[in-house]
Structure formats: structure tokens, C-alpha cells
Amino acid sequence: MFSSRSITAGLLALGFAADPAFAAPDLYRNGPTPAETCANGVATPGAASPALKRVCEEAVSEQALSRKDRAATLANSGIVSLRLGEYEPALDRLTQAAELGPMHGDISISLAATLIRLGRADEAIEALSDIEAVSPENRHIAYYNRALAYWALEDAEAAYRDFYASAALKPGFGPAEEALGQFQVASIE
Q1: Other CB atoms closer than 10 Å to residue 168's CB: what's the count?
Q2: What is the distance between the alpha carbons of residues 127 and 118, in angstroms, rounded to a whole number?
Q3: Structure pTM?
Q4: Are 143 and 137 in contact (CB under 8 A)?
Q5: By C-alpha distance, which of 59, 58, 110 is closest to 87?
Q6: pLDDT, tens digit (0-9, with 9 covering 90-100), for 18-40
């Protein structure tokens, strides 16, 4: 196994360190970066933990992240906080992620979920106002979250429409199908 000390010593011995093109980087890693570890943890169901949150927070502070990667890392950090029930920190991170550029549609899903849990359903609906910006594989979740926000505002018709759209986009999506089971649809003559 190589250490950063032996690599640096080897480069110096070969004379590469004097050439800026071969200057040794300031940081050596053996394994995934904190941003990659954070992303992998978010992708693993049930992996949210205080330890993962610390890794995500470390990842957010990495200076070498591109704008896109910083937005993704902020979003992942927010998702971990959301899963831990820490809604204000989740809102802070997700808002920062969304503000890094044009609203990334998939970030709006987690942002809306956080706003719903904070009792701010009207803001959740606004966050999901452009569902077409959400990636096609996640639109059913966006419709589902917006339906929950409408439901919280007691707008049963709009909630039903979005639960229906969610179930239609992803047949077998249990949460939407269960929610639809709560409704009785009748025609009024």
C-alpha cells in the first residue's frame, strides 16, 4: 500500500515536483470521497444515521466540488437530515442546493417533502409547480408529494388528481394506490 509520504518522496526523487505540470496534489484519497460516500448512503434505504450526516457535512465543505456536484451533495445532505427528522437543517441544505442554479427538478421532491413536514404545504405545492422539470423516473414521487400537500390544505379534488397521476405513472406504487383507496368518487347529477 502506498502512502502520501512515499508518493511525494518518490516524485521529489524523480524531479517531478519541480515541474508545475507534475506538482503533487494537496489531497490524497484511498477510496471514495466523502461526497461519494454521502451519495451512496442516500441511495441505500435505511442508511441515514448521524455518522452519515457527518460524512455529508464533510463533503459539503470540499472545495474541489463542481457546482453540479456541490448541488447534489447539498441535496444529499438535506435528504439525510430529512430522513433523520431534522427538518430545519434539511430545508436549509435543500434550499441551498436549489439556489445553486436553475431549480433541479429532483431536488424539488425532497424540498417539498420537507416543507410538508414543516406544515408549509402551500410552499411545497409551489416547489413542485413544474413537475416536467423532474426526471421522468421520479415524476410519480413528485405527483405523490404534491398530492400530500394538497391533502394537507384540504383540497381533495387536487389531491385526488395528483394521487391518480402518480399511480398512473408508476403502476404498483403502493403509497399512491393506498391513498387513492381513501377516496370515494361519485358523479353528481
Answers
A1: 12
A2: 14
A3: 0.79
A4: no
A5: 110
A6: 444 444 444 455 678 889 999 99
